[in-house]
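Action item from last week, closing it out:
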Amino acid sequence: MDWQAVATRLFGADHAIAADGDFLCGAAVFDGAPLDVVGTTNHAAVGVDLALRQARAVLATVDAHPGRPLLLLVDTQGQALRRRDELLGIHRAMAHLGCCLDLARRRGHAVVGLVYDQALSGGFITSGLMADACHALPQAEIRVMRVPAMARVTKLPEELLESLSRTNPVFAPGVANYVAMGGVRSLWDDDLAAGLRAALADRDTSDRRAQEGAQRGGRRVAADVVRRVLEAS
């Protein structure tokens, strides 16, 4: 689904969201209250420039509109794989974006992520996964690493990883697996406005992903490991 269709289903005609290349930004009115939108489109490869544009938009909301909710619309193929971006410090630019989203949360802004098309790798980690909670449309595509790339990194055979991916959500792409692991809190199906309304009403900003992953059977030991580390610290 393209971002215009998502915006229409969420806000009707009552929004001023616009695309500038791969960058989305603008304001909307939801349930009678203002809301700011920041995000990406066109399967954006998030490089230094795009990360900093998103960070600047988040800081502008924090500065000019204290407490106003932020909706992150996510459609990215991951970080830009270019020498220019590496030389300019893409890791620092993307970390800066994550820090800006954390600042917004600490300043009382509800930060909601929505994967409406595609979410891969670093472009997803420093946007939707930095929200209070990340949600997705059922048809969205989510993954951090393809099986061939995972095989190169782990030195495990592709056949073994393919087999594991059929029974273990940790090894498998797909939005349903990210729900099972707790990385995606919920799917917004027919009534997108109802999904956003529920997300804004949930003001618990604690990281519940490990607990939800355990409850859903997608990450069986992470929550227990976190608990044991905290008890030992």
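Closing note: The mean pLDDT is 93.
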